[in-house]
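Input set for joint prediction.
Command: fold jointly, output tokens.
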Amino acid sequence: MRVELVRRPHPSALYGALSPFLALLITATLGAIMFAILGKAPHLALYAYFIEPLTEVWSLHELLVKAAPLILIAIGLSVCFLSNNWNIGAEGQFIIGAIFGSVLPVMFPEFRGPFVLPIMLLMGILGGMTYAAIPALLKAKLNTNEILSSLMLVYVAQLFLDWLVRGPWRNPQGFNFPESRNFHADAVLPEVISASGRAHYGFVFAIIAAVVMWYILNRTLKGFEIRVMGQSPRAGRFAGFSRAGTILTTFLIAGGLAGLAGISEVSGAIGQLRPVISPGYGFTAIIVAFLGRLNPLGIVAAGLVLALSYLGGEAAQISLGVSNKVANVFQGILLFSVLACDTLIHYRVRIAGRPSAEGQGV
Amino acid sequence: MRNTTKFVLAAVAAFGLAGQASAAEVKACFVYVGPIGDFGWSYQHDQGRLAVEEEFGDKVETAYLESVPEGADAERAIERFARSGCDIIFTTSFGYMDPTNKIAAKFPDVKFEHATGYKRETPNVSVYSSKFYQGRYIQGQIAAKVSETGVAGYIASFPIPEVVRGINSFILGAQSIDPDFKLKVVWVNTWFDPGKEADAAKALIDQGVDIITQHTDSTAPMQVAAERGIKAFGQASDMANFGPETQLTSIIDDWAPYYVERVKAVLDGTWESQDVWHGMAEGNVVMAPYANMPDDVKEMAQETEAKITSGEFEPFTGPIKKQDGSEWLAEGEKADIGTMLGMNFYVEGVDDQLPQ
Amino acid sequence: MIEAILLTIATAATPLLLAALGELVVERSGVLNLGVEGMMIMGAVAGFGAAQLSGSPWVGLLAAVCAGALFSMLFGFLTLTLATNQVATGLSLTILGLGLSGMLGESFVGLPGLKLQAWAIPGLSEIPLIGKLLFAQDPIFYISIALTVAVWWFVFFTRAGLTLRAVGDSHVSAHALGLRVIRIRYLAVLFGGACAGMAGGHLSLVYTPQWTENMTAGRGWIALALVVFASWLPWRLVAGAYLFGAVTIAQFHAQAQGVGIPSQFLSALPYLATIFVLVLISSNRRMTMRNTPASLGKPFVPER
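tokens >
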């Protein structure tokens, strides 16, 4: 018995809508089996994962806090990926964005006023762009592979942040512990509805970015250029598009959004710089970008789902006493199911008993 | 109709049964920064949690979250615990300090215990820490007695006061025996990476040290020392299994007495906010059995341990000079708590420059 | 002392080299598997566990190889049979591997492991300076060197290797020529998984004979970067892995000597050095282009 794929003439709208639910069903089934093996009541586990985090207002806020950086970064990355630029260093761009954005509240804490926050956000974007420009320029000018350079720069950024908060940027009142001073009130990104929870404007930025990017990609010449350069660079060059220009543009977009995510996270959710400010958002966002099918609006949904899986994992740890490892495995199952089900959008699956006569044996 | 009623009753009963788990009087919750399988920092905190379960049985229910990153996730994890009916929440990493205080302000009825920090902004927050440096002093003394080359290697994680205190205490102990004793320090910039820690240990041994001590969490340096036939000190847990012929002793973080005491205080209704720094006297710092050393060295170590435990002796007692030769503590003077807490300078004799 | 340092470098470089060799073959076939870290950690836990249960580190090594290979088939099924996105699937594989290994390894925490003993070749291992480095090493070191030569020979001097490269450069043309694209890619992925598993086994059986969660600590990612660094050429992989290992070890020695540079900057050196050398290499654009598999990362479904 073999599994064969037959390409559909057009992507199936039916499965486009249906596949997430199918994936959920598969995840629930496999998850239930896993939990049963572990001796936990499957229905309680699934409830903890998918429903419990959505039943309380504070938890919904937390969902948005967790999803905001994932979505912001993933939108930028999707532009890179569409143009065939493998930027996997968003984690580093996130960190440098956070550092640039923190210059004002950390080095000039006396400087207050309504201008502080906008300047911080702009500096954050600038920081992310600057850091993304390094692999972009290396690729455009010297043909250096961006997978390696962007990944290696992540580690460099992490160590640089570490040095900053333990050395020059250490909180003078902090007993020499590794952290910057706390941001003053003018430097804190406000909460959207502070009465009910701590979701900050980072999520609003994410939504705006998604809509703007959707427009750019689908309705402008620049968006067309990005797609063409990704799918067929030769054709793009004939059309007069510049390879170096596309590389630079897409990296700067990705870096800028990652930087914005970084400063939003630091200013909105943490309130100071710390040796570690991201639990790997830059890498998780790569998954989010593809789960969202590289479509800005899809990415919003994917970011929320992934954020839910983190929150659900915690809920299950507490209510069922399963370990964090189980939560990771369940997340893996979820991701695989979603990816596998998306296959149905572009292909029909045929189970063949024997190799079909005209086809190649696989 | 009657069937429906029956069903509803059965459902209610079922829910009641499900809720039976919370028949416990107190729920104690723990937030860990690493996996409980690290056999180091988080593992030891979890041993403390298990001791609480053991001690109180059905009266106390416990829950934990492991590998909770410091940053935005910590606040969520702590708030979730506060909302899920925990009566006391232990947040066991320095980076949880601000989130702990923030959530504590929101939930005045829940008790919070933050490890290794210094902020207590509301009356329902306590901070606790451990004087691990006391054990380091004994290690230094042992090292100076046992070493043939007169140089020990120190695998350090990050330049924070906690680690710097340990290095200073070690060299003070060593120089109380051999004033010329030298210490080489290598910073690996990680709490946990067995491979890197092993590489650092090898580098130190190749540079001529014959004693390894570590302030990182994995057992890898112990194994390297065993392989190269030198002696080493364990960290956080008793690592004798990884070097039966190698481990001289180990500083064990034993959180059990403190956790049991604090949960009991909640049970009795006597819990109050406090700022404690426990050490050998309180059973918080425990030395693993002294092994692989001559009997006289062992006796000396035990003697020092007894003195520290009884409070007769304190490692940071003058005269002590700073690394640059300037005087820090005069004869008989003891270090004040602020300097201890924020220590960011070496004492004389450390062969390293402290990253600033 | 130099001898000892070289040995340390070799130990640090061997798992990187092995995992990267596997990934090189995978990528030569046109598949980008970002799940190296996940396969590696599965190899580490399986290797440790099997060695504990059987009492033989050799059984452990075999189990590590099998676990890596088996785990890679999950990736193979999704990306090759179901044509899912390779980047996302690989990353998910890493998440799953880190979780699953932690689950399986829970009871191994705190146990000392069994070490795969070194083989000293009498006579040769007495040669000063390089004797110990080349002839008194653990068996996996010898395997890693032999495998480098084998992969180099296979990729460039065999018909099968030509087929592999053809599939990686253009799966459409390869398919038109009657090559079984999917089957070849399955085999490449399987080989990649086995190598990553062995690299993990090296960690838990030679490098640091113990099991702890996340003990790969990002080495899978470095291996991935090294494949790019090497421009998909096996012998450059050796250079890359040993360069990375050497800079890592050198900075520890610099610290022990007491240089006054912040350790964070020293820790960043291996990453910066890798970028720097790659920039130098890649200025030769023609050569880089020639070796980059053109179909890398693109899913293939035979049209019928």
